[in-house]
Structures are given as C-alpha cells and as structure tokens.
Design a protein that fits this description.
The complex is a heterodimer of chains A (about 80) and B (about 400). Chain A is mainly alpha-helical and about 80 residues long. Helices cover about 55% and strands about 0% of the residues of chain A. Chain A has helices at about 5-20, 40-55, 60-65, 70-79. Chain B folds into two domains: about 5-245, Thiolase/Chalcone synthase (Peroxisomal Thiolase, Chain A, domain 1, 3-Layer(aba) Sandwich); about 260-410, Peroxisomal Thiolase, Chain A, domain 1, CATH 3.40.47. Chain B has an eleven-stranded mixed β-sheet with strand order 5-4-6-7-1-8-15-14-9-10-12, sandwiched between helices. Chain B has about 400 residues and is α/β, with parallel strands linked by helices. In chain B, α4 (about 70-85) runs parallel beside α7 and α11 packs across α12. The chains are: A mainly alpha (about 80), B alpha/beta (about 400). The interface of A and B includes residues 18 and 49 of A. Chain A: Pfam families: PP-binding. Chain A: Its main location: cytoplasm. Chain A: Keywords: Cytoplasm, Fatty acid biosynthesis, Fatty acid metabolism, Lipid biosynthesis, Lipid metabolism, Phosphopantetheine, Phosphoprotein.
C-alpha cells in the first residue's frame, strides 16, 4: 500500500512526538534526526519499529544508519 | 580524629499518602491510611487485593516522552529528588563534589515483566531498546546523577528492604570520607504487579485482610497477619555541615551515626533474639558518639508480620538498656504507608527527621489489641510531642538476607 509523502510526514511527526516529545511541526523533510531533532540512536530504533508498524515497511538495521534526515525515511518508506 | 558532621538539608518523597513530603507528613500525623484496592482483574488470581499504591502518578509530574524511557522506580526517584533538591535550595556545587546513593530493593522489575510480555507476544524487535538501562538496579541512581550532574560517584547498595537506609548510611560515609560535599541519597520501589504479590504471598508474608484493607497494616497488633506492599520513593539531601553553613542552608537534623550488621542466621527469618538488630543500634550510637539516654524516639522497621515486629522491640530494649528503653517512643509509619520495600528506609528516615525538626512523632495506627510481648512504649493512634532540646532519634531498617541498618539523627 502506497503512502503519500504528506501521510508519511504526518505519521512520522506523530511517532516522534510520542517517543521524544518533539512538536510535529518541527518534523520537516530537511531535518537531521541527530543534529536537528536531537534524537539518539536508541530512540531511532524505537522510531524505526513504530514506523514499521504504521507503514508496514521494515527498516533493516543496516539501512537505519543511512537514514539521516526525515526525507531519507520518507524516501525509504515510499520506495 | 573527629568525624565530619553531616546534616540533612533537603527532603523529597512520593508515597501512597501523597506526592510530596508535606502531604505525606500531614497524613502521617493525621493517622491516615494510604492503602487502596488493586485493579479488579487481579483479584481472582491473588489472595491479596490491596496495596499501598502511589497517591500521585508520575505522569502528573514528568512529561510522557521521559516516562517511556524511565522505569517506574526511576520516575519515583526523580520526582522525590527534584523535590529534595529544590527543598535544599538548589545548592550550587561542583559536580565533582556531588554524589548520589539511591537504591532499589528489587530494581526495574516492572520493566522486565512488561518487556518479557512484549517479547513473548511480538518478538525481539518489539522489546524496547531502553529495557537494559531501565531494569538495572542502579538505574534510579544513574538517573538522579544525570539529572543533577553528580560526578563524585553514583552508588546503589542493594539489601532488600534495608536498601534505602543503607543508601543513607553509605552517603554519610561518602561525605565523611571526603569524597563529596553533598550527596543525594535515598531509595525507591515500584513492584506492584501480580507476580510480585504472588511471590510475597506464597511465602505467607502478606496480609490477606481483604475485607478491611486500611487496617491490614497493623504492626504490633495481636492479630497482625503480614505486611502490605507499598510503592514510592524518599530522597534526602545530605551535606557536610561546613558546606551547609557556608551557603546558609536550612538544616533539618544531623545525620550523626550509622550502624550496619548482618544476622547471618536465615535468608528470610530475622534472628528471634534480635542480636544483630541490637548490634546495629549500638554501633550507630557509638558512631554518633551518643548514649542510649540521648534517644527519645525510634521509627521502627515493624512491618506487621507475626515474626518480625516483637523481636525488634526486644532488640531496641537490649541495645538501649532498660532505663533508656522505658523512655523511648516507638512508632511504625508502615501502619499508614504500607511497606515500601527498598523505599522504606528513606521515607521513614524522612519521617524521623521531620519528627525531630517539628517536635512531633507520628502514631502507629490500627493496633486494636497490643501484642503483650511488645517490649517498648508504642505511640498509638495519636501523634505525640517529642521532648525539647538536644535529642536523637533512630530509624531502623531490616532486609531479607539478614541485613540490619540503624541510622541516628540528632536535632539540629
């Protein structure tokens, strides 16, 4: 099932708010998880698992480390 | 060589009686019970339907994203530590001179059980990546160290229900050893779960007075039938008297002496002679440089079990001698809070310090008929004024494993 970029952005915003408390309006495509959103590696694991549940796309560990920005995750899920 | 004078400058607690020290203390003086019914769906599978559940949920004090990566023991410890730190006047201190000693008797067992459920139902990827730093018994100490940037060392002595008293004892030692000027010390427990209730119930340690839960915790009553499990945390800010004086801090009491012993008698039963308990009291008084006649009050461990309560009163008599033991006013605040396990010693030390500071001793409630074997004077039903002047009070805590801790506090 395909998801629009907007759907994915909104979904990620909800997940990130739930896990680290960041306001969803901060979750924009160009943001880096580590540098801009201050998300650590363990939280990133939680976000990946939550994204998998929400969008039905598994993010393998070896891919996860290459997903630096919100846009990277959007692209991965849409692919 | 004279010992460094250590004082108490801050108090914080979250208990079945209230979300802070003020509410908890006024409930203790009112003789109010903090015991409430457990969720209905637990009742069928358990012989015990009540516990001392926290009065104010951590979600009222900490934001949700923080809660999800903290075990409930850590949540309680942080809430109590924030209160204690603010109460101490948020002291400015070199991080290298600030220590932490915060215990839990059991550790992050709710995290273990919840994540095991996740694992069984959904597989390893659904196990939280924060499971390990949440279940570690040192996790409350580490969380407090992180919160207040305490770099002089963070410790978590574990001795079952004596854990948080031992934490306070270790904190006094830490300041005396010159390793820190201020130590945030205490303990926390959050273990109310069907498995843990079943575990204590299967050893016949818990009261099963389901028809009258609020009178179930009845230390020294002739018909006591076990303790009531509680949850919560207590934290004290301990400080060298010199450091406290330099910054003009308010001093609640001196933390004057600590005594440690172990029964080495049985893994769970206390030595019925109370020899080890008495030795802890004697050692603590020696350590404080005080005599039995200086002691006017004991906040006892007394949990409402048939085996423990009476033996403890014999130990108090043996340690203090008849003359002093006849004059000491003994109470068990567990009659109102239930037994906070690894949080008990700290919450009861706070009650002991408040009693000295405010000059009033909280009562023991629920004694309908005093066990005739009780060997000391119990403060029953109503609070009692404490003598004025330079007096001392003792808090006792004992744990499975034969651990005995006595702490001597002296009026400031």
């Amino acid at each position: 099932m395909a998801h629009s970029e907007q759907e994915i952005l909104e979904g990620l915003g909800e997940i990130i708010e739930e896990i680290v408390g960041t306001d969803p309006s901060e979750v924009t495509p160009e943001k880096s998880f580590v540098d801009d959103l201050d998300i650590d590696s363990l939280s990133m694991v939680e976000i990946a698992v939550a994204a998998q549940d929400k969008f039905g796309v598994e993010i393998p560990d070896e891919q996860l480390k290459d997903l630096k920005t919100v846009q990277d995750v959007v692209n991965f899920i849409q692919k | 060589m004279s010992k460094t004078d250590v004082v108490v400058t801050g108090l914080g607690a979250t208990t079945p009686l209230g979300g802070d020290v003020a509410t908890t203390w006024s409930a203790l003086l009112d003789g109010r019970s903090g015991i409430s019914m457990l969720p209905e769906e637990w009742h069928e599978s358990l012989p015990v339907h009540f516990a001392g559940q926290i009065a104010q949920e951590p979600s009222e004090k900490l934001p949700r994203p923080r809660l999800r990566r903290l075990d409930r023991t850590q949540q309680f410890a942080l809430i109590a530590a924030q209160e204690a730190w603010a109460d101490a006047g948020s002291p400015e201190v070199d991080p290298l001179r600030l220590g932490v000693v915060v215990s839990s008797g059991i550790g992050g067992i709710l995290t273990i059980l919840e994540q095991y459920d996740n694992f069984r139902e959904k597989g390893w990827r659904r196990v939280s990546p924060f499971t390990v730093p949440m279940l570690m018994p040192n996790s409350p100490a580490a969380a407090v160290a992180l919160e207040f940037t305490a770099r002089a060392g963070a410790h978590a002595p574990v001795s079952a229900c004596a854990s948080s008293a031992e934490a306070i004892a270790n904190a006094v030692d830490m300041i005396r050893a010159g390793r820190a000027d201020i130590v945030i010390a205490g303990g926390t427990e959050a273990a109310i779960h069907p498995l843990n209730i079943a575990s204590f119930a299967s050893m016949r340690a818990l009261s099963t007075r389901n028809d009258d839960p609020q009178t179930a915790s009845r230390p020294w009553d002739k018909d006591r039938d076990g303790f009531v499990m509680g949850e919560g945390a207590g934290i004290l800010v301990l400080e060298s008297a010199e450091h406290a004086a330099r910054r003009g801090a308010r001093v609640y009491a001196h933390a004057s002496g600590v005594g440690y012993s172990d029964d080495a008698f049985d893994i769970v039963q206390p030595d019925p002679e109370g020899t080890g308990q008495a030795r802890a009291i004697t050692l603590a008084l020696d350590d404080a440089g005080l005599a039995p006649r200086d002691v006017v009050h004991v906040n006892a461990h007394a949990t409402s079990t048939p085996a423990g309560d009476v033996g403890e009163t014999r130990a108090i008599r043996a340690a203090l001698g008849d003359a002093a033991a006849d004059r000491v006013a003994v109470t068990s605040t567990k009659s109102m809070t239930g037994h906070l396990l690894g949080g008990a010693g700290a919450v009861e030390s706070i009650a002991t310090v408040k009693a000295l500071h405010d000059g009033v001793i909280p009562p023991t409630v629920n004694i309908q008929e005093l066990d005739p074997e009780v060997a000391v004077d119990i403060v029953r039903d109503k609070p009692r004024d404490m003598p004025a002047g330079d007096v001392a009070a003792i808090n006792e805590s004992f744990g499975f494993g034969g651990h005995n801790i006595a702490l001597v506090f002296r009026r400031a």
